[in-house]
Amino acid sequence: MTYPIVKYGDPVLEQPAETVKEFDTPELHKLIDDMFESMYAARGVGLAAPQIGISRRIAGEDPSQKLVLINPEIIRNEGKQSTEEGCLSVPGFREPVTRAARVTLRAQNIKGESFEMTGEEILARAFLHETDHLNGKLYISHLSVLKRDIIRRKIRKLVKAGEWA
Given 15, 60, 129, 132, which is the most exposed site by the fewest CB atoms within 10 A? Predict the structure, then answer.
């Protein structure tokens, strides 16, 4: 099932997601399949469950490898990179964001087994971006107050015009 992507302004995007406690269930498998289907349909490279309106600490990365991160936590950041970033939940906006260049996280797989993984450059950015979603933060929180306010004003205009649903 393809879920619509939840857009900025929906409260689910600004609340920490709930920890997953039950693993390897038919419901969890279905949710993860639906997340990847929704990500492919939206042409994304990563997706967190809150982006489809579900408050669970699950993220999918790298559509070609179908990397599933359940209850991920960043355990190490190294270096810096500044690259333009966007988000399926804030469509039409892209801004330079500075993030770590190398990131190590600890997560669980669909069976509940813990693992650690290190990503560099774009994968490091994706780990940080999706983990932010699970913590109730959007990439625009990393922008200056001025840039963030400009984006919010533009979105309010889109909402009033009925073009942000």
Answer: 15
- Give the number of residues written for the chain: 165
Determine which helix (DSSP H) or strand (DSSP E) holds 96, and give its type and residue range: strand 94-99
Distance CA 102, CA 100 (A): 6
130 tagged catalytic: yes
What average pLDDT is seen over the chain?
96
Report DSSP letters for 5-70, one per residue.
Answer: PPPTT-GGGGSPPBPP---S-HHHHHHHHHHHHHHHHHT-SEEEGGGGT--BSEEEE-TTTTEEEE
75-116: pLDDT as tens digits: 999 999 999 999 999 999 999 999 999 999 999 999 999 999
pLDDT in tens, 137-164: 999 999 999 999 999 999 999 999 999 9
DSSP output for 28-43 = HHHHHHHHHHHHHHHT
